[in-house]
Design brief:
The structure holds two protein chains of two kinds.
Chain A: E1 5-12, H1 19-27, E2 33-36, E3 46-49, H2 55-59, H3 70-84, E4 95-100, H4 107-122, H5 136-139, H6 141-152, E5 159-161, H7 167-180, E6 186-193, H8 197-205, E7 226-227, E8 229-236, E9 245-254, H9 267-280, E10 287-291, H10 298-310, E11 317-319, H11 322-325, H12 332-346, E12 348-349, E13 365-366, E14 371-372, E15 377-384, E16 388-396
Parallel strand pairs in A: 3-7, 4-5, 4-6, 10-11, 10-15, 11-13
Antiparallel strand pairs in A: 1-8, 1-9, 2-3, 6-8, 9-16, 12-14, 15-16
Helix pairs in contact in A: 1-12, 3-6, 7-12, 9-10
Chain B: E1 6-14, E2 17-20, E3 23-27, H1 33-44, H2 56-69, E4 82-88, H3 93-103, H4 109-112, H5 119-128, E5 134-138, H6 146-157, E6 162-171, E7 174-183, E8 188-189, H7 192-198
Parallel strand pairs in B: 4-5, 4-6
Antiparallel strand pairs in B: 1-2, 1-7, 1-8, 2-3, 6-7
The chains are: A alpha/beta, B alpha+beta.
Protein name (chain A): 3-oxoacyl-[acyl-carrier-protein] synthase-1
GO cellular component, one term (chain A): cytosol
Family (chain A): Belongs to the thiolase-like superfamily. Beta-ketoacyl-ACP synthases family.
Amino acid sequence: MQKVFVAADNIVSPLGSTTLQNFEQVLQGNSGIQLHDNAAYAAAPFYAAMLAPGQLESYAGQYNANEYTKFERLLLVSIADALRQTNIDTQSSRTGFIVSTTKGNIELLEQSVEKAQAVVAVGDIHEPEAPVEIPVHEMQLGATARKIADHFGFVNEPVVVSSACISGLLAILTGKRLIQAGIYDQVIVTGADVLTRFVLSGFQSFQAVSAGPCRPFDANRSGVSLGEGAATVILTNDPAKAGAFVLGNGAVSNDANHISGPSRTGEELAAAMQLAMSGTGVQPEDIGFVSAHGTATLYNDEMEAKALHHAGLAERPVNSLKGYYGHTLGAAGLIEAIISMQALKKGVVLPTKNFETPGVTMPVNISNAITHTQATHLLKTVSGFGGCNAAMVFSLIS
Amino acid sequence: MSNKAYITGTCIIRNNGIYHNGELVWEAPGAELQEFLRGAYDQFSGQYPKFHKMDPLSKLGWLAAEVLLKDSPILQLPKEAVGMILSNRSASLDTDIRYYATVKDFASPALFVYTLPNIVMGEICIRHGFKGENTFFVSEQFDTALLSAYPTELLSATPLQACLVAWVEVMEQDYEVIMVLVERNGQEVLDKESLDAIR
């Protein structure tokens, strides 16, 4: 089977605009999650990992805010930095482009509603509400992906993966498979989501947002902290362009149980984990650590603990990076895979920020301090609404 | 590619008609979308109250799967061996707009859960117990190159033995479903040309 390597990567987040900046911040235990009091997002203060005012502008100076939305600028900055690290032929018909996102340009829906309300506010109070003019085309993910592809001169039809919270990892897996199917020699896999009132109000309507910074796997966890960011990995079948990692096997499963709640047994995520390991030819004891989804909702973390047991991974170190980044939705699988690759390369297992007291019924080995590992494989897992799960092995090139 | 997958069934829903393997099996001329969906549900199911909670995207995909899988041997396969690759143009925008209209008063969790396009796959998986691979792609037009190549790769490189492959688009009253059942064996090879011909 054709091997697929990671040639370059990037993360743009509240913690920095390169992979290295991000990894250094995480290694020092710093988090992007802060308390925000901003009526544009929510009536009450909330914790989230958001880019500071001016932060994106400092990264994205060359991309005009009149021409590109926040979502698009996140992608542009992330892709441009990743491309600078490699010499792949971006204009080749053998170069694919994959975008992972859940909500893309949904900020435009919010802006169109605000605009209509502003018109009413300045007009006569007896006037009927101004019609909301929704820029539907600009919110269609395929059109947005094409705009980004055109900027870089990518020639192939962009592929957009929108499978809830598993999108980022699934986009990497999709890129790997399209290379193995012989369709591409290299694929630029990028993903982003913006923290919006749309998403925050939705998670709040589920009472799924933690009152403080999220606490994955902790006994006192009470929900997610949301985040925003972008990340990119460039995949190649050319060993000469490879960085430190080769992609192992990946797999996807569905719980077939509930559209907004996870599996009661964790067996479906476990099945994906087992396929990822067996397809790579590794055993649970070969896995240096598992980078779990770890959203810090009661049910997600409980389900993951059960899955780790079923897959024979109960004793392997497990971490969740949500305490550093919040839940970045379509970017989460990408950001967390990249940070995890950096950690394995340095031989460290990162702690689960804000985890103190074990809080799942099946005992698992949650990492709560920096430890060292000689292992050469890591397992990344994600789960999401719609009952979807994905797992994938990343291996250091020996 | 050396490996092949085969189309073993088709269901098309458009212009207020449902076509199974090319034959019109039901129609409701002139009906509004919700009315059309309700009529189709009564015709092909009538036994699944959860249907009424779904958004139009999920109802459309669910109905096409219902038509395609009725009495199908696919339902006897191991649940991990059946997956789906769905796609559309507007993701969940049709529901996104309705959800966001509730936010200024009382954000609706019942609508929010449908603001992800892959929920339709969750609904089909719950209905039939399918636990295999699933991915939702978004593209400006039905990307028949991707939607033939990727499922073919899945059927050769993963435990999947059967896969629903579809374009499921809805935006207000405009909708279209083109769903095919794909298996490892059959007569009609799944490729860009065969998918284009079904459209």
